[in-house]
């Protein structure tokens, strides 16, 4: 019986040591998995914020692209209207020039005819040598006709100058418009490239977020399993750990009693033999 009690004591020591080691390992596993869960949770939060930032940047880029395209469309409408006005002005000046040239030729012909007539009348008058009535002057060339022709020519030159100015303005406006379109198109292209990059960043962040969420869920599931393991450990270990000293004392007392009884029995046997 003493040997049995010794064996029981040794088993208790082994069981207690097993429980101590198991609880230590379990605690280390819980700490590691808790740290992993916290890390994954922090990653989830960081990636969620990153996705919000990316979404904001994508929204801004879409707005900027739409605004640039709108301004480019408005610039085209303005340029079309401006070009039409220039073309109308140029056409009007050309039409005015054509009309004035015809009028000039008509006036020139009429003036020359009048000059010829006046010359002939003056010759006839000179040959007749009539007495010039008091208050009348002799025949003279019509100076007003020359002034009218000069005025028409000046107007023609003015229309040509306006036409030239308009053509230069049209070329300058067309050049500026092309620069604006080129700059706007380049800007839109750069923003679209950035939009593509942000879309790639978004897809990557979404994949990383899904993986982090899965890892966090796995860590939480592992912690739940560890909680179940802890319950099982307590069920198998609490009794031995809580009662180890009491059981050891009881065994020691029982073994002492057995030894005492053995010694007593051994003494009685000795007396009987004597």
* CATH-derived topology: Helix Hairpins
| Main beta sheet strand tally, sense and closure | none
CATH class: Mainly Alpha
Task: Tally the structural domains.
Answer: 1
Class from helix and strand fractions: mainly alpha
Poorly predicted runs of 5 or more residues: 135-140
Q: Report the average pLDDT across residues.
A: 85
Rg value:
59 Å
Short characterization:
The chain is mainly α and 274 residues long. 94% of the residues lie in helices and 0% in strands.
What would you note in describing this structure?
This protein is mostly helical and 274 residues long. The chain has one domain (2-264): Helix Hairpins (Orthogonal Bundle). Helix content is 94%, strand content 0%. It is built from 2 helices and no strands. Helix 1 runs antiparallel to helix 2 (143-273). The chain is rod-shaped. The two termini are 29 Å apart. 2% of the residues are buried. The model is unreliable at 135-140 (pLDDT under 50).
């Amino acid at each position: 019986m003493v040997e049995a009690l010794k064996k029981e004591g040794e088993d208790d020591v082994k069981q207690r040591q097993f429980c101590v080691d198991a609880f230590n390992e379990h605690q280390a596993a819980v700490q590691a998995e808790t740290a992993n869960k916290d890390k994954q949770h922090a990653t989830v939060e960081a990636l969620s914020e990153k996705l919000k930032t990316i979404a904001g940047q994508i929204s801004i880029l879409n707005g900027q692209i739409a605004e640039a395209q709108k301004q480019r469309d408005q610039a085209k409408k303005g340029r079309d209207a401006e070009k039409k006005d220039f073309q109308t002005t140029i056409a009007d000046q050309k039409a005015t020039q054509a009309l004035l040239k015809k009028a000039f030729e008509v006036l020139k012909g009429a003036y020359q005819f009048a000059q010829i007539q006046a010359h002939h009348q003056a010759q006839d008058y000179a040959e007749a040598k009539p007495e010039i009535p008091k208050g009348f002057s002799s025949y003279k060339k019509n100076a007003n006709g020359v002034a009218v022709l000069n005025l028409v020519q000046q107007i023609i030159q003015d229309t040509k100058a306006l036409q030239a100015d308009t053509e230069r303005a049209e070329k300058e406006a067309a050049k500026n418009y092309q620069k604006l379109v080129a700059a706007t198109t380049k800007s839109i292209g750069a923003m679209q490239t950035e939009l593509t990059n942000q879309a790639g960043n978004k897809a990557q962040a979404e994949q990383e977020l899904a993986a982090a969420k899965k890892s966090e869920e796995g860590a939480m599931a592992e912690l739940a399993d560890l909680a179940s393991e802890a319950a099982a450990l307590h069920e198998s270990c609490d009794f031995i750990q809580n009662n180890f000293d009491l059981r050891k004392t009881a065994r020691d007392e029982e073994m002492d009693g057995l030894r005492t009884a053995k010694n007593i029995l051994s003494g009685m046997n000795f007396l009987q033999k004597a």
